[in-house]
């Protein structure tokens, strides 16, 4: 232990006078390179004069040994140190509040915004998982359970199309030409289960129809997107039942917007050919008009024209009424027409398959028409 040789209360001669700001004045005593005036006493009741000098050896009245008392206030440096601490605490609290809000928003976005309903009362459905977003496989996995195969039987024969489940109790959207004139409608889910369906309402002018399964509940539903946000070049996925192959998935891009497409209002075109997969023994295409020309046969006298999304995703007979989907798993269109040139120049009627000219009814057209379809007003 080091022995202290300085008498108790003695003031060290090497004490830095600047440690006590009230004892010296800048530019006078106590400043570096200047002398203090010895012998000056400091009185506790005396006022401090900025110009007064302080002598390190001076006696202090009322204190043993003449040693100056500690400052009556905390050093300025320590007092300033508290402010950043309080500021950091406030910032941390604010960041926690903002972070919580962001987490809530992200959660709402990730679950498809389940608190909101789509226009026309359609419920939000399955969405692509975060890890699979932006992939065809992710879209297919999420949406395929909500796409069904529709078999329509009439006096003219049988036809096959597709549909999109929009409510858990079995409301399904499809094209009017898929079920037009049908005496019986059978719907097959992606699980293979089959239901009988009834027509709720149709809108031939928009080539849309709404059917309802009998006794269905707890079905997987599709989320309806916003076709006004679609841009040329956007990636899309098509799901349907071409040639009766349930759940077939194809992909491509949006090739063009607002194409004027004309289709028959029902299945009774002058050629007698249906617009679904076709009547038994047919393998027929979907007749439509575009740019003043007719494709895939005669559309007949009763036609309707709508603005369509054009896609190069492969569509074939049986895709009619199925879904065109964006990479977030939202329905942006109902597939309705496609061009497939004949494989024979002689016009034998056999199909050569898709050449990447497909058309879909924008989903916003469907959402605006959904209440009318449910009310049966367009039938």
Short description:
The chain has 379 residues and is α+β, with helices and mostly antiparallel strands. The protein is built from 4 helices and 15 strands.
**Roughly how much helix do the residues carry, as a percent range?**
10-25%
Gyration radius over CA? 41 Å
By DSSP, the count of extended strands is 15
Low-confidence stretches: 1-13, 17-43, 87-122, 268-283, 343-349
Widest sheet: strand order? 1-2-3-6-5-4
Shape: globular
- Alpha plus pi helix count: 4
> Helix/strand-derived class?
alpha+beta
The proportion of strand residues reads 25-35%
Elements, N to C (H/E): HHEEEHEEEEEEEEEEEEH
What is the terminal separation in angstroms?
Answer: 106 Å
Major sheet characteristics: 6 strands, antiparallel, barrel
Oligomer: single chain
Mean pLDDT: 72
Question: Can you tell me about this structure?
Answer:
With 379 residues, this protein is an alpha+beta fold. The chain contains four helices and 15 strands. It has helices spanning 76-110, 136-143, 176-179, 363-375, and strands at 147-154, 157-165, 171-174, 184-188, 194-203, 208-213, 223-224, 235-240, 248-264, 288-290, 293-295, 303-311, 323-325, 330-338, 358-362. A six-stranded antiparallel barrel has the order 1-2-3-6-5-4. It has a six-stranded antiparallel barrel with strand order 8-9-12-15-14-13. A hairpin with a 2-residue loop joins strand 1 (147-154) and strand 2 (157-165). It is globular and about 110 Å long. Residues 1-13, 17-43, 87-122, 268-283 and 343-349 have low confidence and may be disordered.
């Amino acid at each position: 232990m080091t022995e202290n040789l300085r008498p108790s209360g003695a003031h060290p001669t090497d004490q830095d006078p600047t440690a006590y700001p009230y004892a010296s004045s800048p530019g006078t005593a106590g400043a570096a390179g200047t002398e203090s005036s010895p012998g000056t006493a400091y009185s506790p009741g005396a006022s401090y004069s900025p110009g007064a000098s302080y002598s390190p050896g001076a006696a202090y009245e009322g204190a043993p040994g003449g040693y100056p008392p500690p400052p009556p206030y905390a050093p300025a440096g320590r007092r300033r140190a508290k402010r950043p601490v309080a500021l950091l605490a406030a910032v941390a609290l604010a960041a926690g509040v903002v972070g919580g809000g962001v987490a809530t928003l992200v959660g709402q976005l990730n679950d498809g915004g389940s608190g909101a309903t789509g226009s026309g009362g359609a419920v939000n459905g399955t969405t692509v998982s975060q890890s699979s977003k932006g992939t065809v496989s992710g879209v297919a996995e999420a949406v395929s359970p909500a796409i069904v195969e529709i078999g329509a039987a009439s006096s003219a024969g049988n036809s096959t199309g597709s549909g999109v489940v929009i409510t858990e109790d079995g409301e399904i959207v499809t094209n009017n030409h898929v079920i037009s004139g049908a005496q019986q409608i059978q719907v097959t889910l992606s699980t293979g289960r089959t239901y009988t369906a009834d027509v709720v309402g149709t809108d031939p002018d928009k080539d849309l129809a709404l059917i309802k399964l009998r006794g269905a509940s707890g079905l997987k539903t599709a989320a309806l997107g916003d076709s006004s946000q679609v841009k040329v070049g956007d990636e899309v996925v098509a799901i349907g039942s071409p040639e009766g192959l349930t759940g077939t998935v194809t992909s491509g891009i949006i090739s063009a917007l607002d194409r004027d497409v004309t289709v028959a209002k029902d299945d009774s075109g002058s050629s007698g050919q249906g617009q679904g997969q076709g009547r038994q023994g047919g393998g027929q295409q979907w007749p439509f008009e575009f740019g003043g020309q007719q494709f895939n046969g005669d559309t007949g006298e009763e036609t309707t024209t709508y603005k369509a999304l054009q896609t190069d995703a492969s569509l074939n007979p049986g895709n009619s009424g199925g879904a065109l989907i964006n990479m977030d798993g939202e329905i942006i269109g109902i597939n309705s027409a496609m061009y497939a040139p004949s494989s024979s120049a002689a016009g034998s009627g056999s199909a050569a398959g898709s050449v990447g000219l497909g058309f879909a009814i924008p989903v916003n057209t469907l959402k605006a028409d959904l209440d009318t379809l449910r009310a049966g007003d367009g039938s």
